User: What shape does this take?
Amino acid sequence: MARKPNAAFMKPVQPDDTLAAVVGSKAMPRTELTKKLWAYIRKNGLQDKKNKRNINADDALKAVFGGKKVVSMFEMTKLVSKHVK
Assistant: This one.
């Protein structure tokens, strides 16, 4: 039997201006938001080479991460959720 996707997870969220600088300003489901965030991280080579669980923030991401220069993947999710409505 196919699992139904979690409705709350698929509900579009609205990125604030800080996050919009990275993923764009239109509302999208969290899954899409995470994909865009990772695409940005990869495109700009921001994943730490030694410790792949860490993201080295550039200026745009540092704003999203509350000024932190390095965050773990797990921390990233929590910090990003502060920037969506």
